[in-house]
Amino acid sequence: MPWPSRKRDKGAVADKKEPDAKIAKTEETSDKGEEEKSSKPPAGSSKSGWKNWKKKESESGGEESKITYCHWLLKSEPESRLEKGVDVKFSVDDLKAQPNQTTCWDGVRNYQARNFLRSMKLGQQAFFYHSNCKEPGIVALVKIVKEAYPDHTQFDQKDPHYDSTSRKENPKWSMVDVQFVRMTKRFIPLSEIKAHHLAHKADGGPLKDMMLFTRQRLSIQPLTQEEFDFVLSLEEEKPH
């Protein structure tokens, strides 16, 4: 693989209970930075956006979604950063340059994120999210084309995410294969999504519990149908 271990989880606070979980401080720092960058919502009323979206749903006869995870958000770094001498950069353009625009999503070293990977089903869609960069946000859609199987990088001593405690007969870490579907019609920045999240916490909108803000350090995050539909609908709106 030309870009080894470029997608990996960078640790969640809750995983302190898991002594074997590898926590990369760089993720905690970068996500905190992203959170700070997005602390001031952009101008414009998020509530009106939520009401307009609900109106569109009712007009189209949409039914209220069940609280279940069926879509995903995958974080990857679009800018060069060395980890143990290896550049972990992997942007959506790198994905598009892969054979059949498909790659394995390797390097995840967080138990909760790993379990989310193992829950992914063939054909499910995910947002491709640029993280740890000047302006983080959603840039594209991808789909799961191969369900969870052992992540080979855990056994590669030259890989920055090598795990000496993992055994081939009982591997700790998994990965899936994803394929590029399309670019979003426009870049959807973290700051814009957060503005809606804050408004929805107050008025009960679909993003009120979005894991991008409740467990922001995870690089693999599940989305409900309602969360996915609302965020995707933002590509049709003019940026604030």
Q: Kindly, what is the distance between the CA atoms of the first and last residues, rounded to a whole number of angstroms?
A: 39 Å
Average pLDDT rating: 82
Order of helices and strands: HHEEEHEHEEEHHEH
Class based on secondary structure composition and strand pairing: alpha+beta
SS elements, strand count: 8
Radius of gyration: 18 Å
How would a textbook summarize the main sheet?
A: 6 strands, mixed
How many DSSP helices? 7
Describe this entry's structure for a reader.
β5 (125-130) and β6 form a beta hairpin. The chain has seven helices and eight strands, in the order ααβββαβαβββααβα. The strands form two sheets. It has a six-stranded mixed β-sheet with strand order 4-7-6-5-1-8. The protein has a two-stranded antiparallel sheet with strand order 2-3. α2 crosses α5. It is α+β, with helices and mostly antiparallel strands and 240 residues long. The protein has helices at residues 25-37, 46-59, 92-96, 111-119, 190-203, 211-214, 225-233; strands at 69-76, 82-83, 86-87, 102-104, 125-130, 137-150, 174-189, 220-224. The protein is globular. Residues 10-45 and 58-66 have low confidence and may be disordered. Helices cover 28% and strands 23% of the residues.
